[in-house]
Design goal:
CATH superfamily of the largest domain in chain A: Jelly Rolls
CATH topology of the largest domain in chain A: Jelly Rolls
Structural class of chain A: alpha+beta
Number of domains of chain A: 2
Radius of gyration of chain A: 19 Å
CATH class of the largest domain in chain A: Mainly Beta
Oligomer: homodimer
Number of helices of chain A: 7
Strand content of chain A: 15-25%
Helix content of chain A: 25-40%
Shape of chain A: globular
CATH architecture of the largest domain in chain A: Sandwich
Largest sheet of chain A: 5 strands, antiparallel
DNA sequence: CGGCTGCTTGACCGTCATCAATAAATGTGG
DNA sequence: CCACATTTATTGATGACGGTCAAGCAGCCG
């Protein structure tokens, strides 16, 4: 995992206390002692957009938290069909203590900075960091819920519902990363800047790139969204878009 | 959760030491002290096929392990479209410490016996049961992997591939529940008795009941399976069926 | 035996994938 | 800064896979 071709490794360039994901990542509820432990062993790595961070089956040597940028977890079939099975946004955790190989391909879709720990030392430290342990279980349970919600989308939703769900998901996550966990309910229009290309969205939603494009056009023609360039979506009426999702998300 | 209409509650009718899931459930690596703690607070409940075990949004009062039988986790949309997001077979855990409401609908598909714990006491005990805590994280990570594998199936696989994947999944889980975790690679034919109806399979696979039925027929005509009644499938050549899956599962 | 439920089969149709051609955005070098 | 090349996105034409609607069939139990 975390191959070193053409990416930068820096040891502890940021103090945890000023870290942008300090209060949401796996260290969220770490006390002073725990934080000092983490701080002493952590290091940063940066990957460029498009770079592979890890491949399924690789030895799992490094665990990490996303500090900035967006990465994907994906699963592929022999003939090339691929499904993104997880979006990794700032504060999300990569890798799992107790496993020795990587379970899914990890790819940077924008420039990504990771806060890294070597796996073995981290696992050893974990015993003495009950708050981190609890937080890790909590985050894993959240991911499980998210994965299961996505299963409903993949198995049962129409292309239009998938796009609407996706836009609202990104809107929600953007809002809760800027403002402090507020819900997205304001009547104002919302500007979303998409971290993903049409192709990546298609891979995430179980669609083709053409269908994604057509649904964007359709939503635009129906006045539910406005496009500013290709990567910025304006949602004039969040409630109206929510009505397209098909369930109470 | 765990409403009491028409189901049986029995306190500690089985000793943990003779429990069929003792070595695979959340208690798998519990030591003598931990097991004694669990034993003193556990109780059993039995649900009939078709009964609702819990509904999304219910207060989460009881956590449990499946001892015998099969249950499903499912997620529904307003208009009734439903996706099964998890199969619960013996040893699987239901509910999550740290949450106070049920996240998904839980339904018994056969008669189900659960080994139950009231949530609050269980959470308190958890602090003193490190082995249980670790096992719980491990099981949650396994579930997450399984959910993500299923996302590939739901998003990218054809109906035929879905059915083949499902049959092999059940075959694998049946084998590893009888023989001790051996892999299913024997050249002999394998008999699978399906715990699910066509309808439930469809809900699990993101298909309709008609498509499931048609694919069973197609696989039968191609000599990949034989049906004995409607609930028993004989796979004469596991490798041949595996070739229909599309990836190295 | 009739009625019920669950499964299979058939006919038809819609959604989305596929193939293909532009068009727009992005990048590169002169 | 513009011409050109390359990637990314849009739009169109067509068809296949799986969904829908509907009828028949099989097993089960009173």
């Amino acid at each position: 995992m975390l191959d070193d071709d053409a990416n930068v490794t820096v040891r502890a360039e940021i103090r945890c206390s000023t870290c942008p994901v300090r209060h949401r990542a796996v260290c969220a509820r770490a006390d002073a002692d725990e934080l000092a432990l983490l701080d002493s062993v952590k290091f940063y790595k940066t990957y460029q957009a498009g770079q592979t961070i890890a491949l399924r089956g690789d030895p799992l040597e490094v665990l990490s938290s996303v500090v900035t940028g967006t990465a994907t977890l994906s699963q592929s079939m022999e003939d090339g069909r691929t499904q993104i099975v997880g979006l990794l946004l700032p504060s999300d955790f990569i890798g799992r203590p107790g496993r020795d190989t990587v379970a899914h391909d990890v790819t940077a879709v924008t420039e990504v900075t990771l806060c890294c720990f070597r796996r073995k030392p981290f696992e050893d430290l974990l015993v003495n960091m009950p708050h981190v342990q609890v937080r890790l279980l909590e985050m894993t349970l959240d991911e499980l819920d998210a994965a299961r919600d996505w299963m409903l989308l993949l198995g049962r939703k129409t292309a239009r519902e998938k796009i609407a769900s996706f836009l609202l998901l990104i809107a929600q996550r953007t809002v809760s990363n800027t403002i402090s966990n507020s819900d997205l309910a304001c009547d104002d229009e919302v500007r979303i800047s998409l971290p993903l290309s049409r192709e990546t969205m298609a891979t995430y939603l179980g669609l083709t790139i053409e269908t994604v494009s057509r649904q964007f056009t359709a939503l635009r023609k129906d006045g539910l969204i406005t496009l500013d360039g290709t990567r910025t979506v304006i949602v004039p009426d969040v409630a109206a878009l929510s009505a397209e999702v098909g369930d109470g998300d």
